[in-house]
């Protein structure tokens, strides 16, 4: 059966995008014209679309092997790129593989070979060793957030992967960081560098909030009440601290999610889903959340711990004040604590925590997340879910929030006051041909 391949115009119309931003336009032209391209651009500027569009246009619809390999430092980024690729509806098959997921599940997915394969370095290297798929037609490799992969110790796997791909003709590297050394094994030859790192940071405001105590929990609560019900991320350096901060927020009835490397993959994914759909407006996270994850535009970030490096400070701040929006980064500092040089040099405005005006008490979040035990593989669409919840579940449109569909399940934001009624009316109903379980997570 011949592939139905869509044009870029059709793809952008499907996404509801009128035109690409300047970085995306320049990257598209560069990737189409040069063999080696490095894209430096802030988090949230649309780098994924900037490389996917030109790469898709160069795919061979007659080829039955993997043609493009996309390497990412984290599972979340790999999954995010897969979702974007599928939303494009290009007509080409895409799969994602990563550590922590069943290898047999990978093999099942790869039986029908994708044109685009996305994955983390360790899992991709493992597949190449076992020859799960043929690498003979891979002509393009994309190292997304390549510096992060190097930073967290994937250099040997990345070297092994590149050495296993003899027919690479195009190399694309992306990063949100300036002045990162690119290892020789990547094989770049006179790359064209597109640098938009100075874009999107002008609207970022940085403020220092001084705490009278070394344990800054009270100052954090005061700041959160000062900010009111706005979406934001609280960054901690260590996962043990996240648990302590989480317990303290629970004691003060402030709803939130947690995100760090030690969590099970399922829990990490669900924390992001709840943050995206508004069930939680706060996320407490380590630097794992500083880049490469799919979260909505946020109004602020809080450095509960001062970051250890200037690079971490930059990436954390990059979660807010993204390309077309404003945001504030709050540095929570004990008044006897010395700030790192890179923060001290900013000469930020300082405020004493207990003198902040409490504009709005943070209230319990208004949404809850509903789990549905059926997804894309069951041919279930967003329209099917909305129909069931509004007709049979008796929800109005404004009581139904964001719907996310995964291969084997779906997640829906629903007004908290309506969840019991909804479940009693819809649990064990049929969606398409599948009887589905419906519950709150």
Q: Mind describing the biggest β-sheet?
A: 7 strands, parallel
User: Count the helices. How many?
Assistant: 15
What percent of residues adopt helix (DSSP H or I)?
25-40%
The secondary structure category is: alpha/beta
Model regions low in confidence, pLDDT < 50 over at least 5 residues: none
CATH architecture assignment of the largest domain:
3-Layer(aba) Sandwich
CATH topology annotation of the largest domain: Rossmann fold
Account of the 3D structure:
By secondary structure, the chain is of the alpha/beta class. It has 3 domains: 8-195, 3-Layer(aba) Sandwich (Rossmann fold), CATH 3.40.50.300; 204-355, P-loop containing nucleotide triphosphate hydrolases (Rossmann fold, 3-Layer(aba) Sandwich), CATH 3.40.50; 367-440, Alpha-Beta Plaits (2-Layer Sandwich). The chain contains 15 helices and 20 strands. The strands form 4 sheets. The chain has a 7-stranded parallel β-sheet, with helices on both faces. The protein has a 7-stranded parallel β-sheet with strand order 10-11-9-12-13-8-14, sandwiched between helices. Strands 16-17-15-20 form a 4-stranded antiparallel β-sheet, sandwiched between helices. Strand 18 and strand 19 form a beta hairpin. Helix 2 runs parallel beside helix 3 and helix 6 (121-130) packs parallel to helix 8. The mean pLDDT is 87.
């Amino acid at each position: 059966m011949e592939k139905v391949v869509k044009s870029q115009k059709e793809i952008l119309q499907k996404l509801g995008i009128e035109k690409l931003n300047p970085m995306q336009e320049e990257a598209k032209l560069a990737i189409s014209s040069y063999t080696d391209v490095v894209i430096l651009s802030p988090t949230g500027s649309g780098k994924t679309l900037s490389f996917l569009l030109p790469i898709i246009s160069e795919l061979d619809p007659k080829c039955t092997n993997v043609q493009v390999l996309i390497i990412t430092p984290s599972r979340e980024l790999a999954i995010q790129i897969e979702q974007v690729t599928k939303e494009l509806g290009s007509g080409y098959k895409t799969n994602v593989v990563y550590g922590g997921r069943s290898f047999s599940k990978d093999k099942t997915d790869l039986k029908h070979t994708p044109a685009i394969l996305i994955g983390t370095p360790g899992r991709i290297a493992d597949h190449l060793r076992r020859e799960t798929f043929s690498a003979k037609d891979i002509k393009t490799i994309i190292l997304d957030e390549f510096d992060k992969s190097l930073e967290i110790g994937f250099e040997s796997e990345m070297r092994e992967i590149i050495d296993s791909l003899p027919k690479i003709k195009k190399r694309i590297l992306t990063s949100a960081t300036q002045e990162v050394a690119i290892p020789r094994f990547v094989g770049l030859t006179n790359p064209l560098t597109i640098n938009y790192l100075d874009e999107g940071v002008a609207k970022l405001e940085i403020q220092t909030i001084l705490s009278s105590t070394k344990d800054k929990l009270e100052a954090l609560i005061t700041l959160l009440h000062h900010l009111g019900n706005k979406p934001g991320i609280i960054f901690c350096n260590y996962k043990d601290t996240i648990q302590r901060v989480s317990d303290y927020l629970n004691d003060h009835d402030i709803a939130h999610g947690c995100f760090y490397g030690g969590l099970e993959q399922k829990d990490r994914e669900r924390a992001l889903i709840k943050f995206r759909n508004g069930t939680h407006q706060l996320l407490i996270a380590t630097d794992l959340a500083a880049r490469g994850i799919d979260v909505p535009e946020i109004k602020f970030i809080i450095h509960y711990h001062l970051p250890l490096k200037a690079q971490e400070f930059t990436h954390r701040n990059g979660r807010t004040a993204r390309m077309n929006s404003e945001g504030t980064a709050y540095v929570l500092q004990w008044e006897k604590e010395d700030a790192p040089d890179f923060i001290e040099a900013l000469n930020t405005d300082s405020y004493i925590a207990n003198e902040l005006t409490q504009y709005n008490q943070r209230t319990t979040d208004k949404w809850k997340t509903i789990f549905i035990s059926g997804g894309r593989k069951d041919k279930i669409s967003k329209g099917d879910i909305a129909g069931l919840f509004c007709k049979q579940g008796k929800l109005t449109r404004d009581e139904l929030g964001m719907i996310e569909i995964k291969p084997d399940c779906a997640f829906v934001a629903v007004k908290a006051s309506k969840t019991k009624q909804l479940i009693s009316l819809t649990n064990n109903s049929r969606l398409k041909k599948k009887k589905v379980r419906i519950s709150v997570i």
